[in-house]
C-alpha cells in the first residue's frame, strides 16, 4: 500500500467515524438540540467524503443545503418551541426500539454489502471517466438553471412553506390553553 493510498484510507476512516458518530449521537442524545448539532456533524462528514471523491459540487451542496439550511432550520425550530427543560426532550427511544433498530441496521448493512460486492450483468465495474476538460459544476449549474429550473424553484418554495409552517406551529395559541406567556410576562394572562 502506497503512502497516498494510506493517506486516503485514513482520511476516509476519519470522515466515516464523523458520520457514524454523528448518526449515533442523533439517536442516543437525550437533549434534542445536542442531537441536532450531532446531525450537523454527520452532514459535515458526508460533505468531506464527497470532497475526497472529487465531487466538489455535491460537497458544496451538502454544506449549503444540509448544514446551512436543514440543520439550522431544525435548530431554529427547537429553539422556537421554548421547552422549559431541554435535558430530557428526546425520550422516544426504548431499549426494545434500539434492539429492533440495531437488528434492522445490521440486516440492511449485510444486504447493501452483498449488492455492492456483486457484479450486475451488462453493467461495467466502474463508471466511465468524464472527458478531459469537462467542468461538471458548470454543466450541473447550466442544467439547474435551464431544463431543471421549474423543479429547482418548486423545491425553494417548498422549503419556504416548511419554514413558515414551522414558525406558525411553534407560535400558535392552542384552544383551551389561553395565550402563551412571553418571556418576562409573569402572571399577565
Essential attributes:
single chain; 189 residues; mainly alpha; Four Helix Bundle (Hemerythrin (Met), subunit A); 2 domains
Terminal residue distance? 71 Å
Strand content: under 5%
Q: What fraction, in percent, of the residue positions are helical?
A: 55-70%
Number-wise, the strands total: 0
Could you provide a short overview of the structure?
The chain is mainly α and 189 residues long. The protein has 6 helices and no strands.
Structural notes for this entry:
With 189 residues, the chain is mainly alpha-helical. The protein has 2 domains: 1-100, Four Helix Bundle (Hemerythrin (Met), subunit A) (Up-down Bundle); 136-174. Helices cover 68% and strands 0% of the residues. The protein contains 6 helices and no strands. The relative contact order is 0.07. The model has no long low-confidence stretch (mean pLDDT 78).
Amino acid at each position: 500500500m502506497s503512502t497516498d493510498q494510506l493517506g486516503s484510507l485514513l482520511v476516509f476512516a476519519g470522515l466515516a467515524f464523523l458520520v457514524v458518530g454523528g448518526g449515533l449521537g442523533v439517536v442516543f442524545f437525550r437533549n434534542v438540540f445536542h442531537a441536532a448539532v450531532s446531525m450537523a456533524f454527520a452532514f459535515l462528514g458526508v460533505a468531506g467524503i464527497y470532497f475526497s471523491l472529487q465531487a466538489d459540487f455535491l460537497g458544496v451542496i451538502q454544506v449549503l443545503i444540509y448544514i446551512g439550511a436543514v440543520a439550522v432550520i431544525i435548530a431554529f425550530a427547537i429553539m422556537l418551541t421554548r421547552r422549559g427543560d431541554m435535558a430530557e426532550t428526546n425520550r422516544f427511544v426504548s431499549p426494545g426500539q434500539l434492539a429492533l433498530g440495531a437488528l434492522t441496521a445490521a440486516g440492511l448493512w449485510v444486504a447493501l454489502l452483498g449488492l455492492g460486492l456483486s457484479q450486475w450483468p451488462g453493467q461495467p465495474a466502474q463508471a466511465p471517466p468524464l472527458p478531459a476538460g469537462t467542468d461538471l459544476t458548470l454543466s450541473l449549474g447550466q442544467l439547474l438553471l435551464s431544463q431543471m429550473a421549474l423543479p429547482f424553484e418548486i423545491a425553494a418554495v417548498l422549503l419556504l412553506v416548511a419554514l413558515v409552517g414551522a414558525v406558525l406551529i411553534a407560535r400558535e395559541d392552542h384552544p383551551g390553553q389561553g395565550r402563551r406567556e412571553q418571556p418576562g410576562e409573569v402572571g399577565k394572562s
